[in-house]
């Protein structure tokens, strides 16, 4: 049996005093003041055992990690037509890149780049009665924690500076791939990104992907096949133009966010969340990537 507490404590010790920690995202002004020294790790095994170290219990902005959760909510409700509106190919481009969208007639490359997530937001708005509230309740139910909230200041900060996302949404609308108004769709999208969670809550939220879709949801649970597909998309698209590097270094399906969180999982085994707000040039947590590389190397637990 692996001594998981020892493994994550060792990784935390190896990296906690690192000077080169990357840069905190400041294109969303409200995120610019987060202390770059924060660093937490939380591991949850499928049998319910948990291991944690560092700042695992502090809330942070999950940002793009939310894209996996909106996809997981939308897919069981819209299983047939979803893949006609968004593709499943890696983009090889940054998360906010626009030129491929125009080249490919408004069909985003995948649901984890911004344009793809904006289409999924539109799908949910069309399907849900109270979209923001219903999605927040879905996340709360998956984690079994009703304290999870949107950070309204972060959502508003992104609304005021989200020029790229307005461009993407307007292109999608022009190509007929948004049913709802651009402002309504982006309001939902900025709020989903502004959800705050701890590493512990994230590890719990992602258990369904490690568990063939099964979790505590009473309705709208993913099928095993849908969970398999979402894991494949995380592996190939979860880190944008660094997805190959993440597969090469870490070897797990996962998802990053510009708040500095990364969550990754090994089906049938565990979920692991890391938070360090300093980002590398590709917008992924610099220490987070290193911590997960050390974790899969030390434990030899990866999909490869
Ligand atoms: O739309 C944006 O730019 C942000 N709300 C989310 C981007 C993000 O987290 C990219 N991930 N690494």
Report on the structure:
With 304 residues, the protein is an alpha+beta fold. It is built from 14 helices and eight strands. It has helices at residues 4-15, 66-74, 82-85, 99-103, 114-127, 131-143, 152-161, 163-174, 182-193, 199-205, 207-210, 224-237, 243-249, 286-299, and strands at residues 40-45, 50-54, 60-61, 149-150, 195-197, 254-256, 261-266, 270-275. The strands form two sheets. The chain has a five-stranded antiparallel sheet with strand order 2-1-8-7-6, sandwiched between helices. Strand 7 and strand 8 form a beta hairpin. Helix 1 packs antiparallel against helix 14 and helix 5 (114-127) crosses helix 8 (163-174). It is globular. The two termini are 20 Å apart. The model has no long low-confidence stretch (mean pLDDT 96). The chain binds 6-diazenyl-5-OXO-L-norleucine (DON). Residues 63-64, 95-96, 114, 158, 165, 193, 256-258, 283-284 line the site of 6-diazenyl-5-OXO-L-norleucine.
Q: Percent of residues in helical segments?
A: 40-55%
Shape: globular
One letter per element, helices H and strands E, the order comes to: HEEEHHHHHEHHHEHHHHEEEH
Attached small molecules: 6-diazenyl-5-OXO-L-norleucine
- Based on DSSP secondary structure assignment, what is the total number of beta strands? 8
Query: Helices and strands: which structural class?
Result: alpha+beta
Give the mean pLDDT: 96
Strand order of the largest sheet: 2-1-8-7-6
Number of helices: 14
Main beta-sheet annotation? 5 strands, antiparallel
Q: Strand-residue fraction? A: 5-15%
What gap, in angstroms, lies between the N and C termini?
A: 20 Å
């Amino acid at each position: 049996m692996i001594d998981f507490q020892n493994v994550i404590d060792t990784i935390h010790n190896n990296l906690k005093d690192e000077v080169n920690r990357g840069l905190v995202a400041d294109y969303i002004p409200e995120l610019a003041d987060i202390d770059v020294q924060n660093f937490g790790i939380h591991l949850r095994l499928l049998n319910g055992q948990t291991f944690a170290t560092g700042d695992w219990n502090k809330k942070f902005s999950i940002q793009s990690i939310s894209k996996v959760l909106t996809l997981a909510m939308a897919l069981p409700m819209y299983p047939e037509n979803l893949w006609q509106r968004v593709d499943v190919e890696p983009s090889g481009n940054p998360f906010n890149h626009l030129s491929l969208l125009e080249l490919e007639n408004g069909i985003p490359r995948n649901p984890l780049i911004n344009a793809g997530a904006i289409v999924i937001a539109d799908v949910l708005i069309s399907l849900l009665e109270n979209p923001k509230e219903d999605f927040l309740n879905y996340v709360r139910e998956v984690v079994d924690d009703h304290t999870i909230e949107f950070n309204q200041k972060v959502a508003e900060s992104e609304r005021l500076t989200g020029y790229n996302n307005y461009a993407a949404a307007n292109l999608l609308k022009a190509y007929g791939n948004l049913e709802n108004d651009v402002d309504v769709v982006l309001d939902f999208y900025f709020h989903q990104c502004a959800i705050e969670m701890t590493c512990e809550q994230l590890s719990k939220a992602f258990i369904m992907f490690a568990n063939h879709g099964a979790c505590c949801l009473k309705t709208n649970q993913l099928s095993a096949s849908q969970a398999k597909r979402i894991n494949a998309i995380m592996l190939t698209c979860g880190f944008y133009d660094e997805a190959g590097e993440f597969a090469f270094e870490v070897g797990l399906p996962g998802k990053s966010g510009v708040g500095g969180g990364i969550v990754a999982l090994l089906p049938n085994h565990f979920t692991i969340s890391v938070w360090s707000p300093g980002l590398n040039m590709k917008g992924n947590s610099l220490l987070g990537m290193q911590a997960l590389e050390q974790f899969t190397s030390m434990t030899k637990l990866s999909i490869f």
